Amino acid sequence: MISAWRYNESDEDQRELHQFTPNREVPVSELVELGILYWNVDVTGPLYLEKVDTISHERGYKNKDIIDISKATLPNFEEKIKTFFEEHIHEDEEIRFILEGSGYFDVRDKSDQWIRVACKQSDLLPAGIYHRFTLDTANHLKAMRLFKENPKWIPINRSKETDTNQFHVEYLHNIAKEL
């Protein structure tokens, strides 16, 4: 099951939990209202790739690749981790199927406050949602990334211009329709 909570701003390393005491959990229903979809597909199961292919077909994903994020596999590791943690959007749905390791996606709620979503199996962020990503303290995550078209993983950092970005505006429109 997916786990999420209100993000507690502090001077701690971004890879720490950043929870309040007591923790302020965010229900799955609130994540759904934000347009966050979630599947849990057991990577140890014999047919997990068939399940991923089914989701890909249903969502229109045509391409995929594998990214392995660790000190041993990613050049300029610390610099990249800081870059991933800058608030941004993408112009395509962003789905990561977690094969190994774990990390966090932070997303903005409707009040523009951060929610931290722990990712361990299969999580999806819709196109246009402001977010950032970091590993947890284990410093390793291997994921299959799924794309609708050719990979569009260039982050568009948040600014006044991104607030009017067509994909962000479409995201907000789609969320409003679903409420």
Automatic annotation (TrEMBL):
<keyword id="KW-0560">Oxidoreductase</keyword>
<dbReference type="GO" id="GO:0010309">
    <property type="term" value="F:acireductone dioxygenase [iron(II)-requiring] activity"/>
</dbReference>
<feature type="binding site">
    <location>
        <position position="131"/>
    </location>
    <ligand>
        <name>Fe(2+)</name>
    </ligand>
</feature>
<keyword id="KW-0539">Nucleus</keyword>
<comment type="function">
    <text>Catalyzes 2 different reactions between oxygen and the acireductone 1,2-dihydroxy-3-keto-5-methylthiopentene (DHK-MTPene) depending upon the metal bound in the active site. Fe-containing acireductone dioxygenase (Fe-ARD) produces formate and 2-keto-4-methylthiobutyrate (KMTB), the alpha-ketoacid precursor of methionine in the methionine recycle pathway. Ni-containing acireductone dioxygenase (Ni-ARD) produces methylthiopropionate, carbon monoxide and formate, and does not lie on the methionine recycle pathway.</text>
</comment>
<dbReference type="InterPro" id="IPR027496">
    <property type="entry name" value="ARD_euk"/>
</dbReference>
<dbReference type="GO" id="GO:0019509">
    <property type="term" value="P:L-methionine salvage from methylthioadenosine"/>
</dbReference>
<dbReference type="GO" id="GO:0005737">
    <property type="term" value="C:cytoplasm"/>
</dbReference>
<keyword id="KW-0223">Dioxygenase</keyword>
<keyword id="KW-0533">Nickel</keyword>
<dbReference type="GO" id="GO:0010308">
    <property type="term" value="F:acireductone dioxygenase (Ni2+-requiring) activity"/>
</dbReference>
<dbReference type="InterPro" id="IPR014710">
    <property type="entry name" value="RmlC-like_jellyroll"/>
</dbReference>
<dbReference type="InterPro" id="IPR004313">
    <property type="entry name" value="ARD"/>
</dbReference>
<keyword id="KW-0479">Metal-binding</keyword>
<feature type="binding site">
    <location>
        <position position="88"/>
    </location>
    <ligand>
        <name>Ni(2+)</name>
    </ligand>
</feature>
<protein>
    <recommendedName>
        <fullName>Acireductone dioxygenase</fullName>
        <ecNumber>1.13.11.54</ecNumber>
        <ecNumber>1.13.11.53</ecNumber>
    </recommendedName>
</protein>
<feature type="binding site">
    <location>
        <position position="131"/>
    </location>
    <ligand>
        <name>Ni(2+)</name>
    </ligand>
</feature>
<keyword id="KW-0408">Iron</keyword>
<feature type="binding site">
    <location>
        <position position="94"/>
    </location>
    <ligand>
        <name>Fe(2+)</name>
    </ligand>
</feature>
<feature type="binding site">
    <location>
        <position position="90"/>
    </location>
    <ligand>
        <name>Ni(2+)</name>
    </ligand>
</feature>
<keyword id="KW-0486">Methionine biosynthesis</keyword>
<dbReference type="GO" id="GO:0005634">
    <property type="term" value="C:nucleus"/>
</dbReference>
<keyword id="KW-0963">Cytoplasm</keyword>
<comment type="pathway">
    <text>Amino-acid biosynthesis; L-methionine biosynthesis via salvage pathway; L-methionine from S-methyl-5-thio-alpha-D-ribose 1-phosphate: step 5/6.</text>
</comment>
<dbReference type="Pfam" id="PF03079">
    <property type="entry name" value="ARD"/>
</dbReference>
<dbReference type="GO" id="GO:0005506">
    <property type="term" value="F:iron ion binding"/>
</dbReference>
<feature type="binding site">
    <location>
        <position position="94"/>
    </location>
    <ligand>
        <name>Ni(2+)</name>
    </ligand>
</feature>
<keyword id="KW-0028">Amino-acid biosynthesis</keyword>
<comment type="similarity">
    <text>Belongs to the acireductone dioxygenase (ARD) family.</text>
</comment>
<dbReference type="InterPro" id="IPR011051">
    <property type="entry name" value="RmlC_Cupin_sf"/>
</dbReference>
<feature type="binding site">
    <location>
        <position position="90"/>
    </location>
    <ligand>
        <name>Fe(2+)</name>
    </ligand>
</feature>
<dbReference type="GO" id="GO:0016151">
    <property type="term" value="F:nickel cation binding"/>
</dbReference>
<feature type="binding site">
    <location>
        <position position="88"/>
    </location>
    <ligand>
        <name>Fe(2+)</name>
    </ligand>
</feature>
